[in-house]
User: Fold these one by one.
Assistant:
Number 1:
Amino acid sequence: MEAVCNQNFNNSDMESSYGIVEKQFFHIKDENFTLQCGEKLEYITIAYETFGTLNKKKNNAILVFHALTGDSHAAGFYKDSDEKPGWWNIVIGPGKAIDTDKYFVICSNILGGCMGSTGPSSTLPDKTTHYNMKFPVITVTDMVRCQKRLMDHLNIKQLLSTIGGSLGGMQAMEWSVRYPDMVKSVIPLATTMKHSALSIAFNEVARHAIKSDPKWNNGNYNDESKPDTGLSVARMIGHITYLSDESMREKFGRKLQNKKDISFTFDSQFQVESYLKYQGEKFVERFDANSFLYITKATDYFDLEMQYGNGSSVKAFSKAKAKFLVVSYSSDWLYPTYESKAIVKALKKNRLDVSFCEIESTLGHDAFLLYDNRLNKMLKGFLSSVYNGIKNEI
Amino acid sequence: MEAVCNQNFNNSDMESSYGIVEKQFFHIKDENFTLQCGEKLEYITIAYETFGTLNKKKNNAILVFHALTGDSHAAGFYKDSDEKPGWWNIVIGPGKAIDTDKYFVICSNILGGCMGSTGPSSTLPDKTTHYNMKFPVITVTDMVRCQKRLMDHLNIKQLLSTIGGSLGGMQAMEWSVRYPDMVKSVIPLATTMKHSALSIAFNEVARHAIKSDPKWNNGNYNDESKPDTGLSVARMIGHITYLSDESMREKFGRKLQNKKDISFTFDSQFQVESYLKYQGEKFVERFDANSFLYITKATDYFDLEMQYGNGSSVKAFSKAKAKFLVVSYSSDWLYPTYESKAIVKALKKNRLDVSFCEIESTLGHDAFLLYDNRLNKMLKGFLSSVYNGIKNEI
């Protein structure tokens, strides 16, 4: 099933990609850094990567956000690594939709993550032990506030754009209402203003699967004994929601793994079964179960409407000043098009400059991560237009 | 959340219901009873219930099939029990859509089940131990063949109708092609001719959750130590697929369980979380984990097209003679309307008498189990018409 997983990667990616990148670390030490839950985190590390060059006017910076299980490695390759490139290498690079010859792109691993930023698997400041479930509950607001500190550190006072899909789109929108003066444009892809009951339900079952694994041990596991089975079930559940009925029909249908007749056993005979099993097994190698709990909870808590508008989506965006490009995918049933339309409606009522496109696709929610020339063209055009509008500003 | 679970039941149900029913048992002893997988089951018990009276001509019998986790208790109440009535009490009873004043209704627990019929939790004929995972893999065909033996036992040579939703609909259709001369009409509700990749995927993850529970112990568990957590996750996954985005939005949205502010903990704060947890916990009290494995596998194997038509749905129904009433629900995303339309198309190409209706509903797949006057009227009209057409036959 390798082909399916690496479908974004082809040989030309190496040549056309941004090239070699390095993960960097930014440390926040602030005894007054209070999270939305009320708890304090004095020491925070944020892992990040940059692509392209910040110009003299410092007006070409684009902040890109990863989704649930992504990381700061949005494009290019790590030195001495022939692994596949960053997760959005198809979009970010020289001459690409997010053109690193023109723009300075930053992507950081979210707070709560397990790819270099502080999260439940980090050690406590006194190095005695890991946070595990003693890590405070974090929210999208907390993630965005850490990113703001990183921007301060990089001396970036204006963002040409904030861009992300899914949980990344939530962060992109949060930026526009929390720091309206800093954000020139926002591109939320395949996302929502607030998590629906359906999305909460899938997340809760996935969390339940992890917590039901005896090896989870209330979050106190170690490398020798991790809740791999629970996390694998959680991933399998998630993975189904990232695809669509159509894409699964096209890709798998009722095809058998070994092209033989049905074996009348409980083995994974259907290709779709093997594929999901493979996805589950691969995932546990790279992701931390506690991080999965914290990040999914942050998405469930996400409710821009309530937090910034006391229940009104129009009021929630009342402070936003950015231009928006909202994109949904027709077969995304996790964050269906009607949820993007609700965003557009709220923005329009605030007389903001908003473009909207529903991309016809059979690929489900994950479509935003796959190569699509329609998206690339839209991104390129929209970013150029915003950049042309501001680049002569002092 | 009790109100949600018992939404089909109101005080008038007792008065208008069929009344007291008793579970009966039919025993098959046949050393040559070979299942589709090739294995033999010499001793089979089928639990069943009947409602109404078989007339002298024996032409008023209707066979009703339950879905995945149902049982033979389709209507009425058990003696001395003030529990809720049978699962389709809203449809089956005196004067109801399936009118027990006119028709003789039979419903049996499927082979592989755990509500009285032989399944993995049954003891081996020598009473030494339970089958557990040594139970042979069963199929919808095997279930239907057991029901045929039950009909022979009851001396019923003709069925006015075979009716069921979901897995019940699969059995209803299988009857029409396996015993075409016996079946006068078929009513498949919210079902499919073959399980899609999406449906297989959800089933596989649910099975994976059960098998990942250490208490499953390769199927060798006992009452003191059952894979309740795994089965509960499996049920939660299933339950989401029985609802719909719309119904969950209407019923739960982002409502909190205790009407307080968000608590920033991992408790089940959203109502949808508590509801799913409750569904999972209730389910493990009444259902056997191994039965869940076997029955979901039978639905995954179901492929009428391949089994009876060598890949052609038209050929699959070529022997059918019955009249059909096919019903789908607009918000059913487990067996979407296009799958029912494929059935209708295949039937029409065989010039069979077929009526089709997509019921507009926000209730998702489970809609067929909930009170709906539109369905009731259709069932009543269709059954009357079929009955009027044959009741004067000799």
Note: Chain A has a mean pLDDT of 93.
Number 2:
Amino acid sequence: MAKANQNYLKLPGSYLFSMIGKKIGEYQQQHPDADIIRLGIGDVTQPIAPAVIRALHEAVDEMGSPDTFRGYAPDLGYEFLRSVISRKDYRERGCDISAEEIFISDGAKCDCGNIQEIFDMENRIAVCDPVYPVYVDSNVMAGRTGAYDSEAGRFCDVIYMPCTEQNGFVPELPDQIPDLIYLCFPNNPTGAVMGKGMLQEWVDYARLHGSVILYDAAYEAYISDGEIPHSIYECEGARECAIEFRSFSKTAGFTGLRLGFTVVPKELKADGIALWPLWARRHGTKYNGAPYIIQRAGEAVYSDEGRRQVMGQVAYYMENARIIYEGLKEAGYTVSGGVNAPYIWLKTPGGMKSWEFFDALLERANVVGTPGSGFGPHGEHYFRLTAFGDRERTMEAVERIRRM
Amino acid sequence: MAKANQNYLKLPGSYLFSMIGKKIGEYQQQHPDADIIRLGIGDVTQPIAPAVIRALHEAVDEMGSPDTFRGYAPDLGYEFLRSVISRKDYRERGCDISAEEIFISDGAKCDCGNIQEIFDMENRIAVCDPVYPVYVDSNVMAGRTGAYDSEAGRFCDVIYMPCTEQNGFVPELPDQIPDLIYLCFPNNPTGAVMGKGMLQEWVDYARLHGSVILYDAAYEAYISDGEIPHSIYECEGARECAIEFRSFSKTAGFTGLRLGFTVVPKELKADGIALWPLWARRHGTKYNGAPYIIQRAGEAVYSDEGRRQVMGQVAYYMENARIIYEGLKEAGYTVSGGVNAPYIWLKTPGGMKSWEFFDALLERANVVGTPGSGFGPHGEHYFRLTAFGDRERTMEAVERIRRM
């Protein structure tokens, strides 16, 4: 008799964004004329940059001709993409990361979800609270988190690291020592960043205890402050304790094209076992490479023209962030994030619960955001707005919130 | 202290195709002028069909315009693709499979590798011997197979079902009852097919014992015999016991574009737990959808023009298969497969070991194939040739083998 993986049954209720979609649908049905502005889900709205579009067309033509057709991609990614990433994202920033240590994939979400597979079931994980749900959920499904305590909104065997107004939404080093530490900076959902000194402390802590840091740098392109590290490998010793995830989704608007990569340094070991060969084996066995044409699109992001264009998109979104941040601040809200990240983290007014504020915003301003409590218990009384909207609609949304 | 997943260390040696690549490289280095013909790896060589290329260009243009840009795809795939698959691949064949039961992915290899995650660790798997390595390897990595017996070339807790000349390379129902049964027909590597009567016996067996059949139908487009089922859902009761994997890789030459899908019927349960929600949750948490432009390419395969063009490619490869099959048969070899599948399964002459024959073929004919023993102990003394080459080169390869 086949048996299902019962760990899946521990996952609480429906996914955050499904619940949001349901509430919007119901409201829209009752108010068919309502003009709803969505600043909830973190999806981009600007079209793919012209240099990238051109690269896509060229690669499509190659696939249509017998002389230039390409079949299976190399498991770990095309050399042309891995080497430009190594050079532009790492070596030019003083990080010693070789092309061979870069694994091309169909996105950081997949890699963040899959990475736990190369670790033993006995590892104890630590995550920020609030947190991007994939880190915990993928470990729940694997059976690494213990039972769900629905009252606390937490899994018994996970170490949660509160990110609060008091600590500037940057977690403190935990007392209980975790084996695997998920960190995401610039942070989703709070928009907080971690300075180099603090990140070095985490690296030192991980090396001292033999922990591995799983560093999600999906939003590094949004860093405006020159002192904030873009990569964990800017810290000394990180090659011995950290895996880094990067994405083209927010950097270059690839949410619908699907491209990302993961860095696993050759020195990195877990209790004496090198992790590079394990991740390579996982890639080779359970994955079959990102499409050739998408890898060419990724390469075009690093051309001078491509870089200029995607930096223009990032600047566009960051101007949205500024408009939201300043508009809400002037209206008397307590806001953070939005300076080195495309997310604005808003304290709900008058001690309102996150979902109460969601309902109020939807009903009174026809604006949709994401309730902070959906990211964890310490997200309660907070609310996330994203800068990925259209300019005019973003301005209109801020104006409506101010009038509330 | 972080601990690695030690199950990975049970995986024997290097991957079959890496070993082949190494041997070719060494030979080429010693004989720089040798003109090697590769009929080893199962990668296609014909360019993407014009109708599909056109759909790709159109979709790329959509991504470059603000009005038609698309961000995140729906987790389970775009409705336009799911519904055409449901209609053309299933309903038109009399199989009751709805669009909602189809999960779009980046390929059948990924899905075949990932599917085991929704099952409990205690399930006992059964595989054919010889077999496509991904089924076993993904279970080894998850820890479901026990230790490796290097003398037998087998994992202790796996049920191996011999596919031999005696049983026409179609496995018999096993005495030990498996929980999960991997079947692949038309078969890789043997090219064998399973008739509807026999497949119905497997479905009945699975229903009787509460087993789940994981049916890999990646090569269904190569079936020429009208009596051979294209889908397991042509059998009565299969909705209650089977998951089916499909691929665009061999059907339409998408090995470099990456597109496939998996069918999980709503009725399907494992010990009372419905599997559709589990696979949907896995998709939503550890995956982020196939690229929009690739899904549009997939849709174009089902247009009248696209269908005609990809059927032309399949016919081209099947003519290669006929040339290899008949050429080797006339030369006195014992051959099978090649009629309803793009693989020719060849008995090595004079009781040669598979790798001995590989070396002889490489050295004396400069032709590369795949040693049968790489697919399992019962593949020893066999050899796989693929029909995915260029016509002229395929004819040349056969001629060289005949002259050996």
Note: Chain B has a mean pLDDT of 96.
